[in-house]
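As a warm-up, study this chain.
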Amino acid sequence: MILAHRRRMYRLLSLACFAAAVVILAAVGLPERLDYTQLSVVNGQRIAAEIGAFAPPLDLTDMDGQAVKFTPDNHGGTVTVINFWATWCAPCEAEMPALQRLSERYKERGLRVIGVNLGDSIHAVRQWSDRLGLSFTLALDPSGRAAADYRLRGQPTTVIVAADGRIASIIYGPADLAALERFITPLLTEG
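Now compare it with the structure written out below.
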């Protein structure tokens, strides 16, 4: 009898807590997602690693120490594909030929492809690039700053940035050429 009474009391208490939570949410609402994901505000525009927001900037170097920069407010109005990868990642290697073909096929229509390596040595990246015949821009992220700014969940991850600097799509996991083309062709200029 006492056990049944306790169960009833716990159920009532649980229902009361749930009802209180619903009332609080209804009164104050949920927070804006960008309030939690934004990195900064540039010229009044929110910078965040999510679809619809301006893409976080990149300030990296390539294997030769040359600057690789991307800023959403000053990237020349080009569609940019930013792919995060590592040499030990088999799915990353599997999608590299598609990224290479994408770069070759759509460069004249205003596409820029940047492959951001996550923490491998310059020697390892160079060997990998040579073996796969990659000619698009490869940038190094040895500190993991770009990975953190883009809130990576794993690699490969591909971020497609429209000509206005806003993130149009994010692909988690390997992407094939058909999927990449489906995302980028509506964003490119005719040509």
